[in-house]
Amino acid sequence: MGVYLLRRLLALIPTLLFASILVFGVVRLVPGDVLDLMLSENDYSASTHDTRADLERALGLDDPIYIQYVNWLGDVVLRGDLGESLWRNTSVNAEIAERLPVTIELGVLSLLIALTIAIPVGVYSAVRQEALGDHLGRSFSIIALAVPNFWLGTMVVILPAMWWGWSPPSIIQPFFSDPIENLKVFLVPSLILGASLSAVVMRMTRTMMLEVLRQDYIRTAWAKGLRERKVVLRHAVKNAMIPVITLVGILVPILFGGTVIIEQIFRLPGIGQLLLDSVSNRDYPIITGIFLISGVMVLVVNLLVDLCYGLLDPKVRYDD
Amino acid sequence: MSDTAVSQPLDQSEEMPVTDPADALLQVENLHTVFRQGRRAINAVNGVSFSVGRGETLAIVGESGSGKSVTAMSLLRLIPSPPGEIIDGDVYFDGRNLLDMSEDELRSVRGNEIAMIFQEPMTSLNPVLSVRQQLAEPMRVHRKVKEENIEARCLDLLRQVRIPDPEARLDAYPHQFSGGMRQRVMIAMALACEPRLLIADEPTTALDVTVQAQILELLKDLTRQHGSSMILITHDLGVVARYADRINVMYAGQIVESGTALEIFENPRHPYTLGLIASMPRLDAEEKARLKPIEGQPPDLGNPPAGCAFHPRCPFAKPQCREQDPPLEPYRGNHLKACWVNVDE
Known about the structure:
Radius of gyration of chain A: 24 Å
CATH topology of the largest domain in chain B: Rossmann fold
Distance between the termini of chain A: 8 Å
CATH superfamily of the largest domain in chain B: P-loop containing nucleotide triphosphate hydrolases
Low-confidence stretches of chain A: none
Pfam family, one (chain A): BPD_transp_1_N
Structural class of chain A: mainly alpha
Shape of chain B: globular
Number of domains of chain B: 2
Radius of gyration of chain B: 21 Å
Largest sheet of chain A: none
Subcellular location (chain A): Cell membrane
Mean pLDDT of chain B: 83
Strand content of chain A: under 5%
Largest interface: A-B, 27 and 31 residues
CATH class of the largest domain in chain B: Alpha Beta
Strand order of the largest sheet of chain B: 6-7-8-3-9-10-12-11
Largest sheet of chain B: 8 strands, mixed
Number of strands of chain B: 12
Keywords (chain A): Cell membrane, Membrane, Transmembrane, Transmembrane helix, Transport
Distance between the termini of chain B: 51 Å
Low-confidence stretches of chain B: 1-21
CATH superfamily of the domain at 101-312 in chain A: MetI-like
CATH architecture of the largest domain in chain B: 3-Layer(aba) Sandwich
Mean pLDDT of chain A: 85
Oligomer: heterodimer
Strand content of chain B: 15-25%
Protein name (chain A): Peptide/nickel transport system permease protein
Membrane topology (chain A): Multi-pass membrane protein
Order of helices and strands of chain B: EEEHEEHEHHHHHEHEHEEHHHEE
CATH architecture of the domain at 101-312 in chain A: Orthogonal Bundle
Helix content of chain B: 25-40%
């Protein structure tokens, strides 16, 4: 297990290296140049950098791109320093560190909500196939899949504001000092993000449960005289969860995409909002930093997913 | 979903078992199981009656699709429903009708008084639970065995089914066992509560020939030791000859001949039984003699032929066979046949 973990962690290095080259390069290929943007803004044109070349030099953008990359990579690897914002004199590390907890809480909460809805409903739907509950569960999942979460989010913000003059709170209290106030902010956006995720997970759970319930070992469990509860929860669910876990691993990057939009709608100061601002400002170091951090998170989640297989499936062993 | 049977109200006045229930451990009366496919109904078991005595081994023989497995599953109401449904019949186990029982009562019989072994040892054990977890289940559910005694009992069971080094194997998972060993685990599980009836549904079909013999010997020894009865379902007549006291030959959802192993092999009365015996490979056959298959195909059970279901394939068929379905009647004593023809003629 320890050896396996170490090997997997080492394997993250080349993946991240490749990803960083890609991100570093692609961000700079985006049409529109940060220099043009800055020079068109008043405070910059009035500043000491009166020529474009001066500004370029001041921002460290005059070196060839591979030199910039090597310098940046050196800072990242040696000092864990993701650089400085081109617009503000703040470090990228600080900007991300300030906003990451918001996005992580939103993501984790959405995922928890999605799984809490999806797995019981999916199991129930399969066990009582074609019963009323199954039809309700499947109708919900079709609706949740069909309704885009940016639309749902917008409606949730706009309609109560129009009708009752209420809008969702967006001042975040730290979770550990005031969990209730904290959840008041996160609950609605998490429900909206979680609903669309739960639809996918629910359908997968139902399909896998139906598949598993047809297996010979389920018949064996019945023949032993077990209660339906035991047959389903002990013999079927664990088998059905193996592919569902895989799906959750795949959904995490999609979830990250969802947070970008939802944060914007609910005015949550998370990574998504920072990313959006930075892209429109062409603030390359911040964009690169965010992509790198989210890449690390996706890889770590997938590593966790692989470790979960070991808990579920005895055929998976890590100690070879 | 486990409610796999239609409960027929028991009409005491006319539905009493034919033989004294004290004699037979299991008494099956006029069992009908159908599978519905849209508007079609497949009569997989079509009026089957038989009994199993105490300590007796009954074999049910027939080709694929003859209804033998469905018969076995119907006894414990393990038919997946939908599409399957037991539409008629009674199954008396020690005087109690299994088809009338509530789900709770039936559960206390399953795995406890009647246990089952299935055809596919590779897939009949749960891949994510250890042998210990699976083996202990019936004891926990039915026998309330104390936690501290469970391990000893599990080891004892593994020893009984002759799994070498049981201490080391107890926490292993099914994929770490060979097919034959898995079937031993299945047998150990079935024997956990010392059932009075063991239903073995083609227990050796998926195994190597050498392993087949070991498993059958094991089943024979263990049922004899415990004084259990056994229903052995197989398509292999060779197996039957050696291990069964009585034989039911099934064709198209019906029993076409029933008798002791000796009666069936020495004096088969139904053309289908004759065909089965003729199609067996024999060591004493002359060299290069070809096996004699039964010509034709089994009938479509959604649309069975009129009269005797076997008549389209029967070399002895006469006009009556095309019109009337022959009843299962005594030929001599307890040797029964369902055929209009005297095969000696």
